Amino acid sequence: MFVKKALFNIILSISFLFIVVISNADINCPNPDCGIMNPEGGNFCDQCGTSLRGVKLLWRYKTGSHVSSSPCVIGSRVYVGSDDKYIYCLSSDNGALIWSYKTGDSVLSSPEVVGSRVYVGSHDNYIYCLSSYNGALIWRYETGYPVFTSPCVIDGRVYVGSYDKYIYCLNADNGSLIWRYETDNYVSSSPFVIGSRVYVGSDDKYIYCLSSDNGALIWSYETGDSVLSSPEVVGSRVYVGSHDNYIYCLSSYNGALIWRYETGDWVYSSPCVIDGRVYVGSCDNYIYCLSSDNGALIWRYKTGGWVESSPCVIGSRVYVGSGDNYIYCLSADSGDLIWRYKTGSYVTSSPCVIGSRVYVGSYDNYIYCLGETR
Fold first, then answer.
1. pTM
2. What does the alpha-carbon distance between residue 135 and residue 248 come to, in Å, rounded to a whole number?
3. What value does the mean pLDDT of the chain take?
4. What count of Cα atoms within 13 Å lies in the side-chain half-sphere of residue 248?
5. CB atoms < 10 A from the CB of 151, how many?
6. Residue range 108-137, pLDDT digits in tens
């Protein structure tokens, strides 16, 4: 009787182990560099932090240095810069290199692609216009200092800021100067152009509204510190962050303050405004969702590091990077975590989401393409 009971317990133990192995077989860590099989710990691999459900790595491309530039995805191509001085064009399908163009210094600027042309800035002081087909140089324009900001291209004109304190308006066809406006400090904020107006911040603490026609000043608003965040304009309102820890909502007509919301640290991230809500990150480690009407807090989500990345909101989901090395996907409605994916370093790049794919750069030198498994 004792022997039969012992044998039964052994068989039961083996059966249970077999069931566990089978049940865990579909949650192997999707990170190819991790190598952990059947990880325990719920939705995440404890070894590398990768989400086991909701997202998987489709491909990644290694550059020669940090990637803080935000990808621009058009059709079957991904355009992005790297601190290794190159502008890259990759296949959006598998990450294969299509072409690369070497500038004279780091490329933190995020490319803007219009038609058959790619517009982007470099720390070598130039604004570049390249062929989107093969990366051939069409023209370049020299400013007096590095170009950190991302160009805004509209109606045949390129609007961009430079560390030489100027906001530039160039001819998109040949790069000739149309006008420039001088601020009192570096211009790290990227211009937002709508109608006949250009909205942009400066390290001189001001948010500017200029005429897109001739660069004449329409109004300016002084915050308490540098404005590196890029404005978002929706209707009659301008939303932007400042290093004085505040998120601002101003009148787009005259710059009058409508509301401001205080976070716990610098607001470097640029707001995304959609469906009556403002989504923005702060260096206090939080991602915020505020009412666009009055700035009331709807929810906030705490990450493990500063949030300089600008949120991308698609449908019911918010995508954003953090200084804790993760890319986050949150519920736009509640801020609940849907998934997160761990890269090898900081994520200051802003995600670009096309269909079920998320494209983003990391300070670990890689450009990532993640696939959502909804």
1. 0.87
2. 38
3. 90
4. 30
5. 28
6. 999 999 999 999 999 999 999 999 999 999
What letter represents residue 134's amino acid?
N
Per-residue model confidence as pLDDT tens digits over 257-272? 999 999 999 999 999 9
* 92, amino acid identity: S
Q: Quick one: average pLDDT of 246-252?
A: 98
Angle at CA 215, nearest 5°, toward 214 and 219?
Answer: 130
Q: Are 158 and 127 in contact (CB under 8 A)?
A: yes
pLDDT at res. 373 = 78
3-state secondary structure the chain: CHHHHHHHHHHHHHHHHHHHHHHHHHHCCCCCCCCCCCCCCCCECCCCCCECCCEEEEEEEECCCCCCCCCEEECCEEEEECCCCEEEEEECCCCCEEEEEECCCCCCCCCEEECCEEEEECCCCEEEEEECCCCCEEEEEECCCCCCCCCEEECCEEEEECCCCEEEEEECCCCCEEEEEECCCCCCCCCEEECCEEEEECCCCEEEEEECCCCCEEEEEECCCCCCCCCEEECCEEEEECCCCEEEEEECCCCCEEEEEECCCCCCCCCEEECCEEEEECCCCEEEEEECCCCCEEEEEECCCCCCCCCEEECCEEEEECCCCEEEEEECCCCCEEEEEECCCCCCCCCEEECCEEEEECCCCEEEEEEECC
Q: What is the pLDDT of residue 25?
A: 34
